Amino acid sequence: MWREGDSTAAITLPGSEVQIMIDSNDPTAAAGPMLVVDSVQTFHDTRPAALDVVQAPAEIPDGFMATYRDAGGTTIYVLDQSTAA
User: Fold this and answer.
1) Do the Cβ atoms of 63 and 40 come closer than 8 Å?
2) Which one is predicted more confidently, 61 or 10?
3) pLDDT tens-digit profile of 9-32?
4) What residues does each domain of the chain span?
5) Is the separation of the CB atoms in 56 and 65 below 8 Å?
């Protein structure tokens, strides 16, 4: 388990690389899965056509993030940690 400030906590599933993160930093943000990839820009450039861009790749602390919506209306967050020290 790890925390970041007062609004984010994550739990790692034992014996797995899967993490579940709970974040209440932006109460107006849509709920949805967050996928960690090696490069957000590469994901964005090769994303499935069914994913509509909500927010194009943008720099965040330690990397980049983009937001998409699938055909069913689910919001999907994609991030990388490519600039982390």
Assistant:
1) yes
2) 61
3) 777 888 888 777 777 667 788 888
4) 30-85
5) no
d(CA 43, CA 45): 6
pLDDT digits (tens, 9 = 90+) for 33-59: 888 899 999 999 999 999 999 999 999
The CATH architecture assigned to 30-85 reads Roll (3.10)
Beta bridge mates, 65:
58, 79
What is the CA angle 53-56-62, rounded to 5? 135
- DSSP strand pairing (75-80 vs 34-36): parallel
DSSP 27-84: TTSPP--EEE-S-HHHHHHH--TT-EEEEEEEEETTEEEEEEE-TTS-EEEEEE-TT-
